[in-house]
């Protein structure tokens, strides 16, 4: 399985992925997703889901509190803007460090249990963080209003404090909005993907799969599963923190709602939808959910009438009223139906579908030329 | 030289006395069998040795290391491996990966964060794993998912996983349970072959055929206590053993 994938194929996969990500503004434009705001979300949530998958996909530990790290990363990034200036790089680094420390503390306690108890513990921690951010920690988080960068903040290294217009994160003068913001997020996603790919193929990655498969055997093989799971938890928390920082880099505002349990649930959906335990799956899942959220929710009755205008009137109205349930406010319904269909028919997510189609092609091509095509690669 | 020495081990579960002052020792390089009727305390005894259960009183010495109170992975790291009654393998991983994991555990210790090198380029581990698979005759299936193996093959894989660590002491809990006659004989051959490596083995077994073809010394447990110990031939003729274990029937 894993051992059969050669380094050359991995570099090829990474190359293709990098090109696909960097040219997203071009090839996503025809389906209406080529605008920077949504592209940034694809990259940010792709990174978030990639990190989540390192924990859930490899070790099988289902964390229901990953949004806490997203929030911690966001707050850290905004504080970095406030204190150090609007450069995104220190913000990203500090966010990774802080969320890593946070994950170490939460993971140390939560990983004492496995299965559903672990999920509940992480959920409890995340809800605790959310409520603390709203109430007790208001001096740090600015409570309900959310934390933002003000003109009066020290911003140590921003000597030329630009007094006019809102404060926007900038990388040595390049403002992190629009396509520039997307490309910054995309590069961070690529770095994150590269690291995840290395972890997947490494001895550490295999140990994490071993944790998922049989912890008892692991113990009696002379391996201590605890530090492995903790390391995976911390790395995964750092990814979430980095994703949180990217949210603030593209829009310097951090609110507590980012830590709510719905946000934690969303990343679980993304990962399962795309395919837990696969490299590309979670990113696909993240993109799909964000696409639905932005495109389907923007549909209204007017657009539906335009879409179905080819139908005769007596058909058009009922069709539009049924379809209307699935768009606009009802996009959650579409997502729910899609999620159910995938879980029932493709338990391995979209990636299982892709590999099934791939196998279908392989079989038909090996029938055409029976010699050679099926020779095992050494 | 004694490699394992168990002294005065007691273990109770509530009111049930599972082990009653058990003394037991194993000479280095020998094969020793523990037999006994169902519920005699064989598995409890093994679990006390391997750190899964903590004995109420008594000591378990491995060479000059006390195993009492050590965690299972620590016990493995000092050179004790265990084969389970139902094969415990990494069933979602390929055969070769199943062997690479214990090989790395032996080399790198109980935790090592090698997150950036490629596993498939670690020639040392790979070669050793392939060699091990050849030894147990599973090398053709090296890239199969181990969960798809037959029960006999799973057992052989588990054995290969343990052997890849070059253990000093190998504990086998009913290694032929639920196997066909042919598979049982294959396993016996395999266990005899690995005897050449000088690994000390303790076998818990039900099947007398296996016991008498493998063991050099047999210990009989009944109701949590040792009732007889000696060479297989002596045990065969011991009336107490026949009474306790076989209900008086002759072997």
UniProtKB/TrEMBL annotation, chain A:
The lineage of its organism: Bacteria, Pseudomonadati, Pseudomonadota, Alphaproteobacteria, Hyphomicrobiales. The chain crosses the membrane at residues 12-35, 42-69, 89-109, 116-137, 180-200, 227-247, 267-289, 333-354. It comes from Roseibium album. One of its GO terms (molecular function) is branched-chain amino acid transmembrane transporter activity. InterPro entries: ABC_transp_permease, LivM-like. It comes from the Bacteria. GO terms for cellular component: plasma membrane. The keyword Flavoprotein does not apply. This is Leucine/isoleucine/valine transporter permease subunit. It is found in: Cell membrane. The keyword Chaperone does not apply. It is a multi-pass membrane protein. Signal peptide: none annotated. Keywords: Cell membrane, Membrane, Transmembrane, Transmembrane helix. Its main location: membrane.
TrEMBL record, chain B:
Coiled coil: none annotated. Residues 4-248 form the ABC transporter domain. Pfam families: ABC_tran (PF00005), BCA_ABC_TP_C (PF12399). Keywords: ATP-binding, Nucleotide-binding, Transport. One of its GO terms (cellular component) is plasma membrane. One of its GO terms (molecular function) is ATP hydrolysis activity. PANTHER family: CONSERVED COMPONENT OF ABC TRANSPORTER FOR NATURAL AMINO ACIDS-RELATED, HIGH-AFFINITY BRANCHED-CHAIN AMINO ACID TRANSPORT ATP-BINDING PROTEIN. This is Arginine transport ATP-binding protein ArtM.
């Amino acid at each position: 399985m894993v051992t059969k994938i050669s380094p050359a194929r991995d570099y090829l996969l990474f190359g293709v992925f990098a090109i696909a990500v960097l040219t997203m503004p071009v090839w996503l434009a025809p389906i209406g997703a080529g605008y920077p705001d949504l592209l940034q979300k694809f990259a940010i949530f792709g990174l978030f889901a990639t990190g989540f998958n390192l924990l859930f996909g490899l070790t099988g530990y289902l964390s229901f509190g990953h949004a806490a790290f997203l929030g911690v990363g966001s707050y850290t990034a905004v504080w970095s803007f406030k204190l150090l200036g609007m450069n995104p790089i220190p913000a990203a680094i500090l966010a990774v460090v802080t969320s890593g420390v946070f994950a170490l503390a939460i993971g140390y306690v939560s990983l004492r249990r496995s299965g559903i108890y672990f999920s509940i513990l992480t959920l409890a921690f995340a809800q605790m963080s959310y409520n603390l951010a709203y109430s007790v920690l208001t001096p740090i988080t600015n409570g309900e209003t959310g934390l933002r960068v003000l003109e009066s903040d020290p911003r140590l290294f921003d000597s030329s404090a630009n007094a006019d217009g809102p404060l926007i994160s900038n990388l040595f003068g390049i403002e992190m909005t629009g396509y520039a913001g997307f490309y910054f997020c995309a590069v961070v996603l690529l770095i994150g993907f590269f690291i995840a790919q290395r972890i997947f193929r490494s001895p550490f990655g295999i140990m994490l799969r071993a944790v998922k498969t049989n912890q008892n055997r692991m113990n009696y093989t002379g391996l201590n599963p605890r530090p492995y799971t903790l390391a995976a938890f911390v790395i995964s928390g750092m990814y979430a923190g980095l994703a949180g920082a990217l949210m603030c880099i593209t829009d310097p505002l951090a609110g507590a709602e980012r830590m709510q349990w719905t946000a934690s649930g969303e990343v679980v959906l993304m990962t399962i939808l795309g395919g837990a335990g696969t490299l590309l799956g979670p990113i696909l899942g993240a993109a799909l959910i964000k696409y639905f959220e932005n495109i389907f929710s923007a549909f209204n009755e007017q657009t539906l009438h335009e879409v179905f205008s080819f139908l005769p009137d007596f058909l058009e109205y009922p069709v539009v009223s049924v379809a209307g349930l699935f768009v606009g406010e009802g996009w959650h319904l579409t997502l729910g139906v899609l999620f159910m269909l995938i879980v029932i028919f493709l338990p391995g997510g979209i990636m299982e579908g892709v590999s099934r189609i791939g196998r279908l092609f392989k079989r038909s091509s090996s029938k055409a030329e029976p010699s050679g095509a099926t020779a095992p690669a050494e | 030289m004694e490699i394992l020495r168990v002294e005065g081990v007691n273990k109770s579960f509530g009111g049930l006395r599972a082990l009653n002052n058990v003394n037991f020792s194993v000479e280095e390089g020998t094969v020793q069998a523990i037999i006994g009727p169902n519920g005699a305390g064989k598995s409890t005894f093994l679990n006390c040795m391997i750190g899964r259960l903590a004995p109420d009183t008594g000591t378990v010495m491995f060479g000059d290391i006390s195993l009492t109170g050590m965690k299972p992975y620590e016990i493995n790291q000092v050179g004790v491996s265990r084969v389970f009654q139902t094969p415990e393998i990494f069933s979602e991983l390929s055969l070769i990966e199943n062997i690479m994991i214990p090989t790395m555990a032996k080399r790198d210790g109980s935790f090592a964060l090698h997150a950036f090198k490629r596993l498939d380029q670690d020639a040392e581990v790979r070669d050793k794993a392939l060699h091990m698979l050849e030894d147990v005759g599973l090398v053709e299936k090296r890239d199969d998912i181990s969960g798809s193996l037959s029960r006999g093959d799973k057992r052989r894989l588990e054995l290969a996983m343990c052997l890849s660590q070059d253990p000093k002491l190998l504990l086998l809990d009913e290694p032929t349970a639920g196997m066909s006659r042919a598979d049982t004989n294959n396993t016996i051959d395999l266990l005899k072959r690995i005897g050449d490596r000088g690994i000390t083995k303790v076998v818990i077994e039900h099947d007398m055929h296996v016991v008498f073809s493998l063991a050099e010394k047999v210990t009989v447990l009944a109701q949590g206590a040792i009732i007889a110990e000696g060479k297989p031939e002596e045990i065969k003729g011991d009336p107490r053993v026949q009474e306790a274990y076989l209900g008086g029937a002759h072997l």
